[in-house]
Amino acid sequence: MSGLASVFTEEERSALQKYCGLVLHDDQEYSKEELLEIYDLVCDTFPYAYDQDGRPLELGWMFEHIIDKLVAL
Predict the structure, then answer these.
(1) Nearest residue to 50 via CA among 40, 61, 39, 66
(2) What are the beta bridge partners of residue 56?
(3) 3-state class of 53 per DSSP?
(4) Angle CA(21)–CA(43)–CA(38) in degrees, nearest 5?
(5) For 1-73, where are the alpha helices, taking DSSP H only?
(6) What is the pLDDT, as a whole number, of residue 31?
(7) C-alpha distances in angstroms, 45 versus 3, 20, 33, 39, 68?
(8) What's the pLDDT at 34?
(9) Cα(first)–Cα(last) distance of the chain, in Å?
(10) Most CB contacts within 10 A, which of 3, 18, 63, 70?
(11) pTM for the predicted model, two decimal places
(12) Cβ distance 23 to 17 under 8 Å?
């Protein structure tokens, strides 16, 4: 899959770089295996946060949006 960077907002791309060390590119062709590795890395390293009632805080919302986008690929 190419055009991966454009799937995410600028804020999401910045967070992926800051918290996961991921720099995504639109001109790179990502295989299904690479997309799965990205999904696993985000799940393992992205600092999602929820309040005491289980509602997502800002990073929790962003994590959920990123994961939703990755699953939809």
Answers:
(1) 61
(2) 50
(3) coil
(4) 55
(5) 10-20, 32-45, 58-72
(6) 96
(7) 23, 6, 18, 10, 16
(8) 97
(9) 9
(10) 63
(11) 0.89
(12) yes
Place of tokens 């991966």: 4
56 phi and psi, to 5 degrees? -70, 140
Q: How far is CA 22 from CA 45, 46, 52, 55, 57, in A?
A: 11, 11, 29, 26, 22
Please report where in the chains the tokens 């992926």 appear, as a residue: 16
pLDDT digit string (tens) for 1-57? 999 999 999 999 999 999 999 999 999 999 999 999 999 999 999 998 888 998 889
pLDDT at position 64 over 90: yes
Cα–Cα dist 4/19, whole Å = 18
